[in-house]
Amino acid sequence: MLYDALIIGRGPAGISCAIYTVRANLKTAVIGKTNSALLKADKIENYYGFAEPVSGKKLLETGEKQAARLGAQIIEDEVVGIEKEKNFKITCTNGVYEARTVLIATGAPVIKAPVKNLEQFEGRGISYCTTCDGFFYRNKKVGVLGYTDYAVHEASELLPFTQDITLFTNAMPLNVSDNLKETLSRFRINTLKIKELYGAETLEGLTLEAGRQETLNGLFIAYGSASSISFALKMGIITDGKSIQANDRMETNIPGLFAAGDCTGIFKQVSVGVGQGAIASRQMIEIVRKMKKDG
Amino acid sequence: MLYDALIIGRGPAGISCAIYTVRANLKTAVIGKTNSALLKADKIENYYGFAEPVSGKKLLETGEKQAARLGAQIIEDEVVGIEKEKNFKITCTNGVYEARTVLIATGAPVIKAPVKNLEQFEGRGISYCTTCDGFFYRNKKVGVLGYTDYAVHEASELLPFTQDITLFTNAMPLNVSDNLKETLSRFRINTLKIKELYGAETLEGLTLEAGRQETLNGLFIAYGSASSISFALKMGIITDGKSIQANDRMETNIPGLFAAGDCTGIFKQVSVGVGQGAIASRQMIEIVRKMKKDG
Questions:
Q1: From A51, A271, A279, residue closest to B65, measured CB to CB
Q2: Which domain holds residue A88?
Q3: Rounded CA gap, A259 and A282, in Å?
Q4: In angstroms, rounded to a whole number, what is the distance separating the alpha carbons of residues A289 and B51?
Q5: What is the pLDDT of residues A41-95, one digit of tens each?
Q6: What are phi and psi of A230, to 5 degrees?
Q7: Which of B187, B221, B255 lies at the terminal end of a domain, its last residue?
Q8: Do A278 and B46 touch (CB under 8 A)?
Q9: B-chain residues within 8 Å CB-CB of A267?
Q10: pTM score, two decimals?
Q11: Which residues, 6+ apart, have CB-to-CB distance to A292 below 8 Å?
Q12: Could you tell me how many CB contacts below 8 A there are between chain A and chain B?
């Protein structure tokens, strides 16, 4: 299924963009799980147009209704991968989508995996990108830190390089879709809490709370949902380490790929995300119209 | 009365900014007439958070209620002048206000005065700024094109230079506040429709529809409300001729002076204005806090 505009993230920035693209007659889908940080916001009183405070939940629901009414497709799914071929190819747990333009509106990067010494080994055994670094670990012993579909996807990306893969859940409840259960069976699973990582120059392994040590050549981080940063690393999108760098038209360095909202780190507010989503839509609409005109 | 944040314009950009500044405990006022371009918008369906279309009128009213509830002062008045001394001095029809920071959120520039040959004489007899150009017309015969408080204010700014001032309303109904009626009596008033401006190199006068000609050395344009461009000219704010140039923090080239919404010409949408207002607030809050800390 080829979409004109595929938006990753169902928060204010993503939905605002979708409202514009769909009204411009672009075939539009918004993909994401219902896990916006806004859900925790009990009372929002600084978003223009609401005389009385509104809950984040209410705002999210209303926004989706609004986009759906105008014709945008809302897809409950987790995006685990994104590639650029002729069009963009977006891999989700339950399907693969193609799109002419993509907006990343996945919110603020998820909290770092709470594992001691993680930063110390970043780039020296710790990686956030299987696509980038998998090759370095041919026939090595690797781990993937995570417990969701995203972690299973990352682990399976390593299969062409090595079969010695352990999924470390760090004692988080394993939360994997049924259709990935078979893939999951190809990895060892360690459900114990991690105490710390160890190594001299580079990562050598990890110590579990229980006391036992596991030697490792590399550990890939895929903790929680795929964040904007993980997409950025896979795609070569320029970041400042925390946020995607977008210009004043919300363009990233990759043509056709845009970013809006908290993942741009500009000012993490509903107001700002909504404005950025609208601004991004303008270029997306222009690109798609040009593509269709040029055939 | 010294305000921390004074916002000119009661549309989405201005009110969004006020919501943020007032919540940051800044003494905040929003000044303007109820004349937003949004009032003409019957159905807005591209502003995030409304499942069903909302009218511009409803949105404006709700926004003002929201800002007022949080403690912002909404002042129904027309801003006719703005100067920077130690603080900013904002002159309105009914009062003068002082402010530490100012946001210009006056919407898109008003339509050009519908007078033939106007552009031809711009800078050669036609001026948009009494403060800038009044001095060139000492003891000359000048006109002011306009019919509102703003026009009367502009005409009175010329009094130190010349007494020979005619207010040309171009057949628009004169719309002047009671407290300016006395000032108004110091000018000649011509209520006829203007056919065209004439002159060889520079403006020499205007021809009325009725056929009669009026010689003039200069004509100052103050048609309708004071627009962002008229403020820009008075203050030396950089524009591109149509819109105020603001950077990605919504700062103009004048410290403490910000711009947001349609007057920045970026993408004239409620969504965008609301986001820009929020972004501007952040710097305004920082400036005011620093001022207060430094005494």
A1: A51
A2: 2-110+227-294
A3: 13
A4: 27
A5: 888 999 999 999 999 999 999 999 999 999 999 999 989 889 998 999 999 989 9
A6: -65, -40
A7: B221
A8: yes
A9: 278-279, 282
A10: 0.83
A11: none
A12: 110
